[in-house]
Amino acid sequence: MLVDVHAHLDVEEFDKDREEVLRKCRIVVVNAGVDLKSSMASLNMARSYPNVVPAVGLHPEFVEKADLELEKVLELIKEAPIISEVGLDFYWIKEEKLRKKQVEMLGRFMEEGERQRKALVIHSRGGLRDILEMVTSYKVKFVIHAYEGSIKDAIRVHELGGFVSIPPIIVRDKVRRTVAEKIPLESILTETDSPFMGPDRYRNEPCNVAITLMELAKLRKQDVREIEEKIQDNFKGIMEPYFSLSGANLTNK
Ligand SMILES: [Zn+2]
């Protein structure tokens, strides 16, 4: 079974064919909420689609919504097995005060992740060192989504017991290919960030995870099925103890 550990299928780009998109291949999709509204949409989607795992979070780019929404989003974590999309974005957010607030927000999510034993799928743009510093203070499982850092930092993620997740854009991204080739398989997950980050300029879709798997197999000179199975195991590792995977369906334990 394919694993898409980070996607946004609640957005309008999928209004016409969401069901079809989710049925095209055997896949489990973690749908990330970026604010209160989409976190609720994420929980709703999971009620309609058995292969969707809901994640709730507040995207660091929306740090200005924190005063209104943060507490409510934190409250929703008890209904979701994964916390996302959360993180640090120092690329779009330059103002020192807001960056500080992002760090505070991420700290709250990590605290909750530790307390409820839920993994965080983390957005990192320009803030990776800070994130890696922070995860050492909390007992949390974590994934750096759409990892775009160096191999050196990827090894650090691995040493901390975390994961880097790789989007299909890898086919046209040399740095990501180096990381995908060198980092131990036990620290790799796959994602699409649909509808963004596609292998081409069209709408990205969860089943494009297959493209990433093919590329991984080629780079690592390893059997594609073996990689697929290992990634499925990695995913089970971050989901435990909330769900078990059986066939194409996710069932509550
Ligand atoms: Zn995202």
UniProtKB/TrEMBL annotation:
Keywords: Hydrolase, Metal-binding. InterPro entries: DNase_TatD-rel_CS, Metal_Hydrolase, TatD-like. It comes from the Archaea. Pfam families: TatD_DNase (PF01026). A divalent metal cation 1 binds at residues 6, 8, 85, 193. CDD domains: TatD_DNAse (cd01310). A divalent metal cation 2 binds at residues 123, 145. GO terms for molecular function: hydrolase activity, acting on ester bonds; metal ion binding. The keyword Hydrolase applies. This is Mg-dependent DNase. It comes from Metallosphaera yellowstonensis MK1.
